[in-house]
Amino acid sequence: MTVNRVILSTTDSIYENLAIEEELLKNLKADEAIIFLWQSEKTIVLGNNQCAYLECNISYCEENQINIARRLSGGGCVYQDLGNLNYSFLYDKGNRLESERQKLEQCFLDGILEALNSYQVKHIEHVNNDLLVGHKKFSGIAYYEEDNKRILHGTLLVDINMEHLAHSLKVNVKKLKFNGVESVRARVVNLKEFNPMIQIPGLKKAITEIFLERFAIEKEEYIEGVKDKNYLVKYKQPFWIFGESPKCSLIFEEKTKKGLFQFVFFVEEEMVEKPKVYSDARIQYDFTDFLRRIEGIKYKEQLLQEAWEEELTKILD
Asked: Which CATH code fits 250-316?
């Protein structure tokens, strides 16, 4: 497979860019591959299966005009602003074997790393779904697949506002302890700390030129908005962003090697109401039968905790 198009967004609207990304995915042609580079204004982007009220400091976001959005892929939430560059690799899987798919995605990531190397950012580690320098994360990678079409997308933290990152996210203490760090700020890093000369326009140009040359593409394309406005309407809808659940009443949670799982529910007149499971796991697990059994039963904390732990063990085995 060859990359057919390199597309750069000219909008900094998170909702517009997420809509463009999905529209590009849905309209991929057979054997087509696209590289999409984009930036967004101050935003927290939730993973598909996360609860905004558990992940975001809503009042801080409102006070500082930080948007909240939700993407298609799973994984954890991220803070981003114009000091960050997003990359998306979209392609039609066709009949490729898993080994071929992995090779294709590594080829794309190698292009990103080559651009960073041109700024003397070296010794980059690829650990799980993160890119690290000096054991600190500057890029988180997530995936989404639909109708045999796939997205690999991620962030490149060049010079984001670390104060906003620290205060806009409600990072779970269990998750931090699991990763052996004291705070979210201790875990992430801006690339400018390794090379003060690195800036978004230059990095974007370097990535673009690498892929244009590597795949003999005549020139990059620019896009300013989504064609089908229904995609944009979707990403702006409060229901898509926040879901049907208001602030969660009670939470049982467990951090595992596959992600953080949060079982949330209300207790009304001693009965369990509106149970839901949120997670930053990159695979979507099905808790439908468990939630159906729990809905409407009498609230007894120990029994619920035991039922939750048993279900989680069964699902993850």
From this structure: 3.30.390.50
